[in-house]
């Protein structure tokens, strides 16, 4: 709304900096123990595909690829 003043204080700046840090750092992935009950979630479209390998609700690895992208093929 045009009539509402936008207030960017110290609390908002701290939250923004924390969000930037989390988005720019690698996620902490779990190490699998044993060979039981792994789950793979995947999704695909005409633009790319992605998959996540999970064990006991913990992310073990993930992969994303995008068609015609210089950033395709990332493996976590």
From TrEMBL:
Protein keywords: Nucleotidyltransferase, RNA-directed DNA polymerase, Transferase
Domain of life according to the entry: Eukaryota
Record flagged with keyword ATP-binding: no
Nucleotidyltransferase listed as a keyword: yes
Alphabetical list of InterPro entries matching this protein: DNA/RNA_pol_sf, Rev_trsase/Diguanyl_cyclase, RT_RNaseH_2
GO molecular function: RNA-directed DNA polymerase activity
Gene3D superfamilies: 3.30.70.270
Entry-linked Pfam families: RT_RNaseH_2 (PF17919)
Domain Reverse transcriptase/retrotransposon-derived protein RNase H-like residue range list: 8-62
PANTHER family: ENZYMATIC POLYPROTEIN-RELATED (PTHR34072), RIBONUCLEASE H (PTHR34072:SF52)
Protein's UniProt name: Putative reverse transcriptase domain-containing protein
Organism: Tanacetum cinerariifolium
Lineage of the species this protein comes from: Eukaryota, Viridiplantae, Streptophyta, Embryophyta, Tracheophyta
């Amino acid at each position: 709304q045009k009539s509402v003043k936008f207030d960017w204080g110290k609390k908002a700046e701290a939250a923004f900096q924390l969000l930037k840090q989390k988005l720019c750092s690698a996620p902490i992935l779990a190490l699998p123990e044993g060979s039981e009950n792994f789950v793979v979630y995947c999704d695909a479209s005409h633009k790319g595909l992605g998959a996540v390998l999970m064990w006991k609700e913990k992310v073990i690895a993930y992969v994303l690829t995008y068609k015609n992208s210089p950033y395709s093929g990332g493996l976590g």
